[in-house]
Design brief:
93 residues, alpha/beta, four-stranded mixed beta sheet, 4 strands, 29% strand, globular
Length: 93
């Protein structure tokens, strides 16, 4: 239920992430064939090999926390979603 589109590109000097909770699940050509409900986008500088991999690993670790995953899906407003995500380190720094 989580997609992590990512790329390393020229023209930026630090990693940038975006977190989205979709209003309806979408099909995604994934190994588990589950529709996606949460999306973490990650753009990193072209030269950020290790930094990029560490950020991907952190996103993966966060989403393996079932309680966090369910709380993000169950938040009843955008404000509650943001507050919960921020409190639990979803926004990588």
């Amino acid at each position: 239920g989580v997609a992590v589109p990512h790329a390393r590109i020229d023209g930026i000097n630090r990693p940038v992430t975006v977190f989205l909770r979709l209003t309806a699940p979408v099909e995604f050509d994934s190994a588990d064939d589950l529709p996606v409900e949460l999306v973490f986008g990650l753009l990193s500088p072209a030269s950020a090999g290790a930094t990029h991999l560490h950020a991907l690993a952190e996103i993966s670790r966060l989403m393996r926390d079932e309680a966090l995953h369910e709380a993000l899906l169950g938040a009843d407003s955008a404000e509650a979603l943001y507050a919960y995500a921020d409190d639990h380190g979803v926004f990588l720094s």
